[in-house]
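Lab notebook page, bench 4
Experiment: in silico fold of construct C2
Operator: M.H.
Input chain length: 133 residues
Purpose: comparison with the prior construct
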Amino acid sequence: MMGWFMLLALLALPGSARAGTLAPVPASAPLACRTDRFTPEQNKRHAALLERVMGALEATTELADGYQWNVDQQRVSFAELTEWISLEGMCCPFFTFGVEWAPAGALRLRLTGEPAAKAVLQTFAPPPATDGH
């Protein structure tokens, strides 16, 4: 859980972008979380949702370009997850988000991106589940 907060603190850039607005990100731009794009209210809400989402992630699966997790819906709702994605996308436009809500009730979150984005995820992602005991 603290990995996200540490990651955001390390990668946050000071900037003059207006909160809540997004500018195109050039492909050559370094990856950096842009928390300066949040209003104070959005920043507070993002932090609260981030803690809930990170506490609900289970069963990590490593993908070629990112990770996928099962999401414990007893710990975070579908609505909270998608609200977090909308905020996270404002500050980290280099991630591609995917949500799968299966008929049996399984909820999955997928974060992918270019190789550098996966490297960012590796700094805090729990290790993938193994079949060994």
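Observations: Confidence is low (pLDDT under 50) at residues 1-26. DSSP finds four helices and four strands in the chain.
Next step: discuss at group meeting.
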